[in-house]
Amino acid sequence: MIEALKSKFSKKPIKVVGCGLAGAEVALILANNGFDVHIFDDGNNRPKTNFGYYSKFETFMTENMQSELNFLGSPLLSIAKKHDFHNFGFEYDENFMFAVRKHLESNPKIKIFSATIDQLNLAETTILATGHNTNPKLLQELENYVEKKRICFFHPEKMILDAASVNLEKLNFVSETECYANLSEEEYDAVCEKILAYDQHYHASENSEKQQITVEGILKRGKAALRNSIMRPHFDERSRCYASLKLTYNPHQKILILDDFCSALDEEEQQQIVWTILALKGCQILQHSAVCQRTYLLAPSCLNNHLQICEHLYVCGGLCGTAGSFESLLLANYCAYRVICDLKGSVGAHLLLENTCIGRILNNLLEKSVIKFRLFNLKYDIMNEKDFERFKKEVAVQTFLSKSQVEKFKEKFYGKYF
């Protein structure tokens, strides 16, 4: 930390709302650079760990994102190394977050308040580092700055099967990873009847938007609607069928992912529905499907490339549209350095957008059209896994994930401008 920088800082603390991965990261970076930080966190709405699965491509991208965080000197990555948390970034770990909390509490520049912020004061620099379960009262306050339709959506979680419990020979493989469970007309009718029977005690109270993405919701429009969408028949030279259910096979994790099947029914009912399909009879379900309400800002219309909604109001974490721990931490780093540069009228943070993972994430958040926007996850969204081998060979991989670009930023940020 350069001494000349300290004398320039405003005495007014920066507010950080949320103390998850992004909130802790941005707070520690600001504090380590001499800013006073007030964190507001009520301890609620922590994420639940989903069943994790990674392909070769996803692992490759994760390693590169982790390397970039290492080059940036990520505080949370340093804590993970110090306490030997091997699963850092892959799943939510209470013990890890406890260690992070200790580091926050021991930092003399940080104060933590067990509360949330319901009203925003735009005269104060505030960073919203909340996730996909942001406090409803804060969301109401955000409606003053963004339209209501831009901050809520329903997110389907995919069903995952243990591949060892399925006779793979009964599935119709069209590639090494893509396959279909084919149904006769009788099977299809039996599945529809079971879904409708289970759904009778749900439909009166279910949100209509939530229903639109579930098999039970689609089926209410008729059997043809389900067969023309999620269970559209897949024909090839080997087989013709009445309906099909698409699956993705991950040979490394020995799992099958039901790509489009989504349901809000309870676990036992989901199992009985899937077991009605003869090819999946008796399969073991590792993760049941679910429909969860999530919150995010529709980044293309709500944020600028400083991660601002408006002056002095910044966003990082899941609320800005990222899905994935490393993605969230990378944007938290960018947000923290952008805040410092904006407050001091300095430059240099733009270098973090050139040939880096951060730049790829931000471009995908901001440059997509509003209609096509969805949660962004670098591991899944940068390109199709089928392009993995070709992608690895391209020179671009070595440039946009370059160590030199981040080092150039650090040299310019600390060595010339402060």
In short:
The protein is of the alpha/beta class.
Description of the structure:
The protein is α/β, with parallel strands linked by helices. It has 18 helices and 14 strands. It has helices at 3-6, 21-32, 56-72, 75-83, 94-106, 136-142, 185-199, 208-211, 215-219, 223-227, 267-275, 299-302, 325-344, 357-367, 378-381, 388-393, 395-400, 403-415, and strands at residues 14-17, 37-40, 110-113, 126-128, 153-157, 159-162, 172-173, 178-183, 243-250, 255-258, 285-287, 290-294, 308-310, 313-315. Helix 2 packs parallel to helix 13 (325-344) and helix 7 runs antiparallel to helix 11 (267-275). The longest helix has 20 residues, at 325-344.
CATH topology name of the largest domain, in short, is FAD/NAD(P)-binding domain
Which runs of at least 5 residues are low in confidence (pLDDT < 50)? 1-9
Share of helical residues? 25-40%
Assigned CATH superfamily of the largest domain: FAD/NAD(P)-binding domain
How many individual β-strands?
14
CATH hierarchy: architecture of the largest domain: 3-Layer(bba) Sandwich
What CATH first level of the largest domain would be assigned? Alpha Beta
**Class per helix and strand makeup:** alpha/beta
**Spatial strand order of the main sheet:** 3-2-1-4-14-13
Compute the CA-based radius of gyration. 24 Å
Overall number of structural domains: 2
Ends distance:
9 Å
